[in-house]
Design brief:
With 137 residues, the chain is mainly α. The protein is built from 7 helices and no strands. The chain has 2 domains: 17-59, no CATH class; 81-136. The two termini are 47 Å apart.
Length: 137
């Protein structure tokens, strides 16, 4: 790649097992079907160790709960960031059209409804001045 990184694409449906190291073939079979039954018939110790760790992680309810809390936190932060970005964009567009009254600035910064902010952003992009924005919002 241009950034110096490399990408490797592995195909679990490959038909050339004789041309690939057996460890990789065993791993790809495991990726295709990571069940206990698949591992029972697997001679490769590395696949067995990977499966043991995967099972341990899946069984850890605490880890799962922590992951879900983390995912929710990330979603909240993303939403807050999107909201703040829209507010800043509205204010930036309006600043180009005149001085923003403090009451209007406060109203924009107090708004948390995404659909309202999206509409205000569209209006701010199209109006010729602050008064026109206020009348359309």
């Amino acid at each position: 790649m241009e950034d110096g990184s490399q990408r490797i694409f592995l195909n679990t449906k490959g038909q050339n097992a004789a041309d690939v190291p057996s460890e990789l073939v065993h791993f790809l079979h495991y990726v295709e079907n990571s069940s206990d039954e698949t591992v029972e018939n697997e001679p490769d110790d590395i696949v067995n160790r990977i499966h043991a760790r995967v099972k341990k992680l899946k069984e850890s309810r605490e880890l799962e709960a922590g992951y879900m809390r983390f995912e929710e936190l990330m979603q909240q932060r993303e939403n807050v960031g999107r909201t703040e970005g829209r507010m800043e964009s509205i204010l930036m567009l309006l600043e180009r059209k005149g001085e923003i009254p403090e009451k209007l600035r406060s109203s924009i910064l107090a708004q948390s409804d995404e659909s309202v902010l999206r509409k205000w952003l569209e209006i701010a992009a199209d109006v010729n001045g602050i008064d026109e924005f206020c009348s359309k919002m």
